[in-house]
Specification:
about 35% helix, about 150 residues, four-stranded antiparallel β-sheet, alpha+beta, about 20% strand
Length: about 150
């Protein structure tokens, strides 16, 4: 795990509201040389500081207005196969392995309630899935963020 110094943290903080900022813009904003920013960005990227640069696309205009979280209970010996099969379902947009009573939390999008029922059935049909519990997402209240962590002084 990499430890970031104040310059790294300032650079990451400047990228948080504007992830597509250019090296020149970041250098100007932070009062650093372009070469320093470029070298730091390369080091941060090599250390794994950045996640995918894929743009987040809103599924609603694509015809998927419903979002749900499916809690999946799995026979542990079949977990890897279950994950592989779940990944084949196009409406699955994210999944996390969990500790505790639920094994997987799967984020899905659907066209309507009937479509969600079909998707849930596809997950249930996978060998190794014991049961599911589905909850509709009512709205994103706190979007993914790291700014408050970067602002911490500890």
């Amino acid at each position: 795990m990499a430890a970031y110094d104040p310059v790294d943290r300032a650079l990451l903080g400047a990228l948080t509201p504007d992830p597509r900022a250019t090296v020149v813009a970041l250098a100007d904003r932070l009062g650093l040389s372009r070469n320093t920013v470029q070298a730091r960005m390369a080091r941060l990227e090599a250390s794994g500081a950045f996640r995918s640069f894929e743009r987040a696309i809103d599924p609603v205009p694509l015809g998927y207005p419903l979002e749900a979280f499916v809690s999946v209970h799995v026979r542990q010996k079949l977990l890897a196969e279950v994950v592989t099969r779940i990944a084949e379902i196009p409406e699955v947009i994210q999944a996390h392995g969990l500790s505790g009573s639920v094994d997987l939390l799967v984020r899905v999008v659907s066209r309507d309630a009937e479509d969600l029922f079909r998707i849930d059935g596809a997950i249930l049909a996978i060998e190794g899935v014991e049961r599911t519990e589905t909850s509709l997402a009512m709205g994103e209240l706190i979007p993914y963020r790291l700014g408050p962590l970067l602002d911490r002084r500890t």
